[in-house]
Amino acid sequence: MIESIFNILSEYLYQSFWLATLSSFVWGLLSIILSPCHLSSIPLIIGFLSSQGKISLGRTFMLSLTFALGILFTIAIIGIITLSAGRLMGDIGPIGNYLVAVVFFAVGLYLLDLIRLPWDGAKLSGTKYKGLVAALVLGLIFGIGLGPCTFAFMAPVLGVVFSVSSTDMVLAVSLLATFALGHCLVIIIAGTLMNKVQQYLNWSENSKAIKIVKKVCGILVILGGIYMIWTTI
Question: What rounded mean pLDDT belongs to the chain?
């Protein structure tokens, strides 16, 4: 079933402009939904948002978007560097996975209230930009270990991009943009749903329910770190 979907999407990439961009968008969605590496970003962003206390929908959107863009930016840089070095695009070896695993363990322990991390915008000099900086840094670091996972899904799209970039730059840019949109959208939706649930149930940072959510996310994030190490060994 999944293989049939992949085959259809690959064929659509070589059809009309709109079918190609739609296919690229779906590839972006699937790069999160069907990848264990990327799925771990969901409890990570939910846990991070729950640690920010009660925030507005717009604020949630900006934090989720910043986190997702941080991931994409790092993956793009890694892709350019490793391709220039003549290696498989996105392959930075086991070091990236170990670094991301360390971040996962740190964030997981933070969400379990076992350690403290100085990133909560409400507790750092009262400036609203600290949360965005923390979200960006998390995304940048998380993206380091996701190169191989992302480019495995992105390979069909990149194949078309490389082949048409010299003759149809608009299509090439559109394919990359729609893939990025699909990739970011899942993370943004997860963060937005977290916000709506928090608002509907009137959860605050000190609510018992939000503390349970944080601990569950902390455990899932730690398991994500263990998975990163397990697949590297």
Answer: 76
